[in-house]
Amino acid sequence: MAERQRKSWLDGAVGYEIYTRSFMDSSGDGFGDLAGIADRLDYLAWLGIDIVWLTPIYPSPDHDHGYDVADYKAVRAEHGTVADVEALLEKAHSLDLKVLLDIVPNHTSSEHEWFKTALADPSSPERAMYLFRDPAPDGGPPNNWISHFGGPAWTLDASSGQYYCHLFLPEQPDLDWRNPAVLDAFDDIYRFWFERGVDGFRIDVAHGLLKHPSFADNPKVREAGEGSGPLAKFFAFDHKFDMDQDDNVQIFARWQAIADNYDATLVAESGVTDHRRLARYVGPDALDLSFFLKPGWMTWEPAEIVAEHLSLADVEPNGISWVISNHDQPRPVSRFTRNEPDTSRGLDRSLAVTTLQMILGGVPFLYYGEELGLGDAIIDPAAREDPVATRNDTDGGEARDVARSPMPWDTSARNGFTTGTPWIASADRESAETVETQKNDPASAVHRYRQLLAVRRSFPDMHSGTYERLDAPTAEVAVIRRDSVLVIANLSTETVSVSAAGDQWQVEFLSAAGEVESEGGTITVSPELSVVLSATS
């Protein structure tokens, strides 16, 4: 089998996730839309972004904020139309931006025509597209699998006496990816959007598609603890039989072969934390890229952050999309200072880790507002939206609303996001957190991120040079060299010295205010500071 050619436009690229309903509303209905995003693409080009990923835009009853898709070949009216997608693509491509859509193949909405037919007619072909199973001998669910969002991963179809599987909400029934009809249907969906110019897809729950044919019970590995939320209960099990099956990769290869015909890319959203298993998701016989999600839920644990990044980069230096935040986790500016008396270091810590990610290869992604240093939003507890919180007896500690508030564009009402009432009840941001104010302040977060992206673009060795790990003084420090570029990420609380003999080094970027000294082949770096240096001799 001939080896696939890597897309040249991925080399050195940086991505940006847009939570579609929260980025920009052009219509005044309080719901972000495609026309609004198109109007703001100039900002992303100015920032230095190369790839824009939009969260789901399809028709949906909205039980899980659009991740319950009712029609994969249409656009939700609040977001716009297929013509609006095409207009957005035209504008993006004129700015040399690529656009990825989100696809949700693990499950559909319970309102999808396939599932409605499956319930209405158990003898229909559509029934076989889902995972219906007979009850256990006691009449209960077929096994002990549980949902990410609370309760069993099985719901009884009373009319037939069978249960159907859903690893998320009951309104999100899982598809049977061992059924050729499902494979064929999604081949067609991919081609539909590629023909309209879409540059690729982010694949939701890529590790969950196939289930083990035995449908055996998952082993329990720990007790979740008193008062634990649904996600803690979910991860109390070893998901040996419902997640990360070996033959998922065969599906990825099939999809990537379609994408390659359009010079399009596919990136997996994978919760797999084992580095070698995750590396299987990318490469010549799989996908171009896979997200590594673990840093997005970690608190400030410098040694573990360094170890997770470097050990994965050792295994897979080219195919990872690195992130420290997304729409499913609290924002790192808040997360990295949680339970600390001084919360002012959140932005500096976030940028220090992002600077490290910029030299690890692959395609790093920012989450909208990350470049502004946004912390968690203030959400009205009585008006929470996230089903993790609203459907469980929880105080909202696992709720995702705090990361989904409107983008703060300016100091006008509702931060310029909408002239109407925003879909989510969150407090307006302060002036210093807005795009308008920060663009006028050269010392602001947005200019620091812009400078980092410009440095990565100016020094191709930073992403394409030969990857080399150098000795670090402690486990809380990473030292990476790629030919003419060196990054030292000192996440510790102490000043450290690193040996980099053989070259003279010039500082190109500092993640925060701090000191870097280079003398006699030794570079000294202040605490909680990442630095990018270039060789001058």
Description:
The protein is of the alpha/beta class and 537 residues long. Helix 5 packs parallel to helix 7. The chain starts with 14 loop residues before the first strand and ends with a strand. An 8-stranded parallel β-sheet has the order 10-9-8-7-3-2-1-11, covered by helices on one side. It has a 5-stranded antiparallel β-sheet with strand order 12-13-14-19-16. The chain is globular. It folds into 3 domains: 8-109 and 177-212 and 237-390 and 403-453, TIM Barrel (Alpha-Beta Barrel); 110-176 and 213-236, Oligo-1,6-glucosidase, Domain 2 (Oligo-1,6-glucosidase, domain 2, Alpha-Beta Complex); 466-535, Immunoglobulin-like. A hairpin with a 7-residue loop joins strand 12 (467-469) and strand 13 (477-482). 24% of the residues lie in helices and 15% in strands. It has helices at 34-39, 41-47, 82-94, 113-120, 180-194, 230-234, 248-260, 275-279, 302-315, 332-335, 346-357, 387-390, 435-439, 445-458, 461-464; strands at residues 15-18, 51-54, 98-103, 132-133, 154-157, 162-165, 200-203, 265-268, 289-292, 320-322, 365-367, 467-469, 477-482, 485-490, 496-499, 505-510, 516-519, 522-525, 529-535. It contains 15 helices and 19 strands.
